[in-house]
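A reminder from the course coordinator: this example appears on the midterm review sheet, so study it carefully.

Given structure:
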């Protein structure tokens, strides 16, 4: 096994250490990637503010690098601002027998983002390759910053419901946030991608977010060209505040309803999260409680299902250093065996629990090597992962 790990690290170093190009936002402003990411892909405080400004340095900033067409209503970029992200891994699994897998590449994304006016921006990306298949568009949003001159941002499109809490796309480890991916029975609603409307506002030191959602993900339209498979729109809300210089806390709520073949299900979720940042150490915590009235859509004797779950994530990244250390603990449980966290294990479970730890190293500002060990505590299975994340 040790020889496999050494070969994986050598492969990543030799094949990809020459990548040194700069992604779209850094190209536009001619700055280093470290202004927004440290380490890549994790966001800095400035990076979070940059995204909140509609992917620009300041709210109301005029579009840059545009062509004058004589039309004051048109801000046309000189070039389409594109960037590419590539994730590749080499893994080994131990669950009774040891197996290895070359996932090179695992994901290839093409991203585009730019301003349309002082207030309007767009952001989108397409997975050209995702786990060996064409993945299609995931994030695709139009953003209106400072609506009516107020500290309000409105977005429309498809996005991750939990982006207002912790962004899955920016985590440092391969292991995912299981509670965000969790589904119960045949109910499609979960906290990853969905289509809808989103608005955020800053009010007296609080960050408020409201979401109006289809509630059934971003699958293709049906034969009638409808995306939503029922008449009800799901609702989500989030409240967050910085309590001290090192502590942020938030509260989340979700309500939804769906029907199938004459049976209906109601989804309710409540959650709390917090971030503690002291020096080079950041600890993130998430807790969610969910209740479904009939996730199996039974026509008679529906059964209520309760789910509790969350995660604790810790990151050590000393200032000025190119290495980082990370750890993640996942726990999701349901009172009936209808749980599917969609992370490669069996569906119809009642519990998922994992512990992950690893290291990262910046070869370049836009190329990070990563190695981690993850253990599924329920299945008594191990997974070793070595790979890289790069963008250019």
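Designed residues:
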């Amino acid at each position: 096994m040790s020889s496999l790990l050494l070969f994986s690290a050598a492969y990543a170093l030799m094949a990809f250490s020459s990548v040194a190009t700069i992604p779209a936002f850094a190209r536009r402003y001619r700055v280093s990637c470290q202004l927004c990411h440290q380490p890549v892909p994790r966001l800095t405080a400035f990076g979070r503010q940059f995204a909140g400004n509609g992917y620009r340095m300041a709210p109301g900033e005029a579009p840059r690098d545009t062509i004058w067409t004589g039309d004051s209503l048109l801000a046309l970029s000189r070039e389409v601002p594109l960037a590419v992200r590539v994730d590749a891994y080499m893994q080994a699994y131990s669950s009774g027998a040891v197996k290895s897998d070359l996932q090179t590449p695992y994901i290839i994304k093409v991203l585009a983002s730019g301003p349309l006016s002082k207030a309007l921006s767009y952001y989108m990306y397409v997975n050209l390759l995702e786990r060996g298949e064409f993945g299609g568009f995931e994030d695709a949003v139009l953003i209106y910053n400072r609506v009516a001159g107020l500290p309000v941002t409105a977005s429309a499109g498809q996005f991750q419901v939990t982006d207002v809490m912790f962004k899955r796309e920016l985590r440092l480890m391969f292991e995912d946030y299981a509670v965000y991916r969790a589904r119960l029975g045949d109910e499609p609603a979960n906290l990853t991608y969905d289509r809808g409307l989103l608005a955020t506002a800053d009010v007296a030191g609080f960050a408020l977010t409201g979401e109006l959602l289809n509630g059934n993900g971003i699958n293709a339209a049906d034969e009638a060209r409808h995306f939503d498979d029922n008449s009800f729109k799901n609702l989500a809300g989030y409240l967050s505040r910085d309590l001290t210089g090192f502590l942020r806390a938030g509260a989340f709520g979700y309500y939804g309803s769906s029907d199938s073949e004459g049976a209906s299900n109601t989804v309710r979720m409540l959650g709390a999260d917090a971030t503690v940042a002291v020096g080079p150490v950041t600890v993130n915590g998430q807790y969610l409680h969910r209740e479904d009235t009939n996730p199996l859509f039974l026509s008679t004797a529906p059964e209520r299902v309760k789910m509790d779950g969350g995660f604790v994530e810790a990151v050590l990244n000393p200032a000025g250093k190119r290495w980082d250390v990370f750890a993640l603990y996942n726990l999701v449980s349901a009172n009936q065996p209808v749980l599917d966290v969609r992370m490669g294990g069996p569906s119809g479970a009642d519990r998922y629990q994992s512990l992950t730890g690893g290291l990262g190293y910046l070869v370049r500002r836009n190329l990070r090597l990563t190695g981690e060990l993850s253990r599924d505590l329920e299945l008594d299975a191990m997974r070793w992962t070595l790979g890289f994340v790069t963008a250019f």
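DSSP finds four helices and 20 strands in the chain. Confidence is low (pLDDT under 50) at residues 1-22.
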